[in-house]
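Lab notebook, page 48
Experiment: co-folding of the full assembly
Goal: obtain a model of how the components sit together before planning crosslinking
Operator: M.T.
Materials (sequences as entered):
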Amino acid sequence: MPRFLYNQKTVQFLLQGLILLGLAFMIWGVGSNLAENIEAKGLQFGLSFLFEKTGFGISQTLISYSEESTFAQLYLVGLLNTLLVAVVGIILATVLGLVIALARLSANPVLRAWAHSYIEITRNLPALFQILFCYVVLLNVLPKTNLTFFFDSVILNVRGLYLPVITVGYHSVYIILTIIIASLLTFWFSSYLKAYRERTGRNASYRYVVYALLPVAVLCVWAFQGFTFSFAPPEAGRFNVTGGLRIIPEFIALTLALSIYTAGFIAEIIRAGLSSVSKGQTEAAQALGFNQNLIYRFILIPQALRLIIPPLTSQYLNITKNSSLAIAVGYPDLTAVFAGTALNQTGHTIEIILITLLTYLSLSLITSVAMNIYNERIKLVGRT
Amino acid sequence: MCSRLFFFLAGFFMTLGLAVLPSASQTQQATLDEIKKRGSLNCGVTTGVAGFSSPDDAGNWTGFDVDLCRALAAAIFDDPTKVKFFPLSSKERFQALVARQIDVLSRVTTWTMSRDTELGLDFTYIHYYDGQGFLVPKSLGVTSAKELDGASVCTQTGTTSELNMSDYFRKNNMSYDPVIFEDYKASVAAFQAGRCQVFTNDASGLSAVRLRFANPDDYVVLPEIISKEPLGPLVRQNDSAWADIVRWTGFALINAEELGITSSNVDEKLKSDNPMVKRFLGIDSTFGEGIGLTNDWTVRIIKAVGNYGEIFKRHLGPETPLNINRGINKLWTDGGLQYAPPVR
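Observation: model returned without errors.
Model output:
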């Protein structure tokens, strides 16, 4: 046997190279097989269909969309709808899961039993089943004729919840963006102030500015747009309500069902994390005079987070992926409009499926990257 | 230990890579040969549309589209039961045919240019001339589709109904709220619950769906037919021999009705002196063998399922709950559109 094969590192390097070569070979083989079969079957392959007009409407669009829009715009509409379900679902599921987990750990036996049965039921029934059930129940519970609230400015019927459109400034979006940015600045400024206090032992003299940041920013932007304000309530037409901000029952059913389903899993994850903190911590805190609320906030949850975040990431990814069940209830998410309607109307199956797969992959990767960054910050630092 | 694992993985991937190497041009086996070898026909149908393809309590499939597949099985095997039915949603129907899971798709599918040219499939003939309509509850108080401005409309994904509905509302400057489902039953359930006031599908499908409700008379199909929906069976491209068989089986059904041959009088007609009848029944012609079947292919078909009129009457006629008027599906000699090229 030649000399270099005795070197373990060289051998491993060569073997890994062989495996990579084999993998590349396999991918090339599959790819060229695919190309040959597509040609043989007379299918067309290409991305130019993205610029053709779609010719059909969508019931919920977060950006402007009409039958004259292109498939590329349709893709954006679907993507935004999926993101909406994912974000709202994640927030709802986390809150609900936290509540259930705390109930599961409480001293009250009734609360514990209730939480336990909730977890067992939602974890063991399939997600699709729960979504369909929620939708059917919702459809039969919502009134067929209009139900109005707040002096006819809010209308509820089986086709949706219609809220008045409140426009602050030229477009509400600017004010919302301002609020988000100002909140982030306030948050950053207050952590700076806290660091200053810890460093010098004194309060900064300009610390009251932090309270004024948000209102001043909003007022400035609003003044710049001339203090315009409009209130447009929905109007009941012959068949349907026109105008207003519409929330379709499909969205409510899907988000609610997904949140309830995932909250069961999240509750168990949080409970596992909280139980992992040693009892000595709680006892020491009680000896120091902490009450239950403070124990949870400052002792238990910060330590539990280290165990909670990794599995929680998986659950968040599950919400995003399970949102593709939307088509069962007629909610126009990415899978339903792009990998459903558009796929059938254009026939470009492979391109559309590839794009959809890559989109879900990117969404999941972004979520897990964000969660991993947070995880890095709070994880236990070892001695090595 | 580690290096054994590496060897294994390396070998595994290399083998996989070699296995998927495109081998020298693999010609696909002709569909007819595949069917004969398999011993049964694979037929794609709906998941349950009354009158066209639906399973009864025992799980046996019956319907207008089902009978075409039974006719094909009779022509090939002389046994109309040698068919395996695959219920497919509107979303998966074409892929199933392309992927060779089924041999023929007889599933109330509309013949359109995009479907004919862009999917690698071919239509064969028109089994049923239909058109798209709207189903509304009578309580809505609507008598014409032009009064539907702002209505919510339910339909299924991947259908021409979706596109036609949008064209119609746009052409008449009306707005609408589309609710698109993947599952036919889910869209029907939403319509019943009132989520949408209008249900749209081919007019034949609307008659079928009305039967599902507890009170079918509370619903009415609006008079406007907004599109052409020629429904017919599909086969894969590049297999003209199989396409010929499907097409001429369909034409045989129509020609049989034109010649007055029914399932009950076939044996009599075999003794007829009429040269057209003799040619049709394969007595002094060899057309059957020419397309890969037997010369008595039409006799087998008619004995098994009857002629076009019998099939229509059996599944969609006045004695069925659907009770659809033959309308433009009458023979050309009666003023309809069913006109088949002659068997000669």
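Interpretation: Chain A is about 65% helix and 5% strand.
Next step: discuss with group before ordering constructs.
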